[in-house]
Amino acid sequence: MRINKYLAHCGVASRRKAEALILDGRITVNGRIIRDLAVTISEGDKVRLDESLVTIPQNFEYYILHKPKGYICTSKDELGRKNVTDLIKTNHRVYSVGRLDKETTGLLILTDDGDLANKMLHPRFKLERKYYAYTKEQLHAKDLDKIKKGIFIGPRERVKADIKHVGFDKGKYKWRVILREGKNREIRRIFLKYNQKVYNLHRYAFGGFTLKGIDRSKSKRISKKEIMTRLKIS
To answer: Nearest-CA neighbor of 180 among 155, 163, 197?
Structure first.
């Protein structure tokens, strides 16, 4: 099994993020630092992330978390900031499927099943991510049309979003935003393109999952079968 796939199966990270760990020199195999992405792992090999031995779990775990503000989604943080994994009571090395930035709240899926996490993030499945965003100013209808068709928010970085005004709450415009591919701080960058700041951002649905019955900072354990069925992943 290739090293990045092995690390994903161990729940260390998705295959893409595992490749970054390898190139950073944080992975050793039988005591030797590995930076070659083509290395394969055989039965009996000892694989470590930093100094910690990593092995493929016998049973994977899956959770839906209602993320509060102030928590980050990185697997390692040298600044000692609060991590979403701190909110999950488990002995497994779970991590979030995709990310919400520190100030964004809402639905996260966490697991130690790197292979399934990689599938959930793959653009070909076009899983819907649904958010509420709040701004102090209005977006024009012509701008909403442009965003729906696709705009550039960076060099060769084109994004699309379905944005609809759905209300006015506590002095701010409330927008429903639907994405089918997640990029870094995508919604905030879309609004910033039109000189608007997003004051609150909340993801209320991902694929077929919602936060119904899950209080803020709380989680709910789900099954792989439920994920495969609701998200229609094969």
So the answer is: 163
Exposure class string for 191-207: b at 16+ Cβ within 10 A, else e:
bebbebebebbbbbbbb
197: tokens are 């700041």
pLDDT tens per residue, range 54-113: 888 778 899 999 999 999 998 666 677 899 999 999 988 888 998 999 999 999 999 988
Judge if 34 and 98 occupy the same domain.
no
Total of domains in the chain:
3
Q: In angstroms, what is the C-alpha Rg of the chain? A: 19
Residue 166 — very low, low, confident or very high, per pLDDT cuts 50/70/90? very high
Task: For the chain, give the number of residues.
Answer: 234
Residue 24 pLDDT > 90: yes
Q: Left, alpha or beta for 111 (phi > 0: left; psi -120 to 50: alpha)?
A: beta
**Cβ proximity of 15 and 5 under 8 Å:** yes
Contact (Cβ atoms closer than 8 angstroms) between residue 34 and residue 28 = yes
Residues designated catalytic: 101
Residue 202 structure tokens: 């909340």
195 and 132 inside one domain? yes
